[in-house]
Amino acid sequence: MGGFIGKMKEDPFANYLGITIEDVGEGYAKVSMEVKENLLNFHGSTNGGAIFSLADVAFACASNSHNQTAVGIAMTMYYMQASGIGDRLVAIAREETKPNRLGVYRIEVLNDKEVLIALAEGMVYRKKDKLVP
Description:
This is Acyl-CoA thioesterase. The protein is of the alpha+beta class and about 130 residues long. The protein contains three helices and six strands; from the N terminus they run H-H-E-E-H-E-E-E-E. The chain has a single domain, classed as Hotdog Thioesterase (Thiol Ester Dehydrase, Chain A). About 20% of the residues lie in helices and about 45% in strands. Strands 1-2-4-5-6-3 form a six-stranded antiparallel beta sheet. The chain starts with a helix and ends with a strand.
């Protein structure tokens, strides 16, 4: 698999967590993950770090979708609703601004019933180099 989308799909951490990259467009990404037992916290709900990681993968894919290297410099996550084992979570990242150096993204994490589980905002710094030459 070639190009920058192929590079995104080879992400070792995303693959370790079972995150699937479903769609990437200019300034947009949709990724998903099934909540399994190893992603639960001691309350029996999805660990916040797993939810954050799902949102972060969507953020990374959307912000690098212009084939210009973008690195996260800030991300704020709001946890709205608990999720649990067997839930399929989907994170959708959308570009809010596209200036030369800084980009702002909104990321929604939804369950399979389209209930908002978490909401995040992220900012990237865009480097001059291409993700894939």
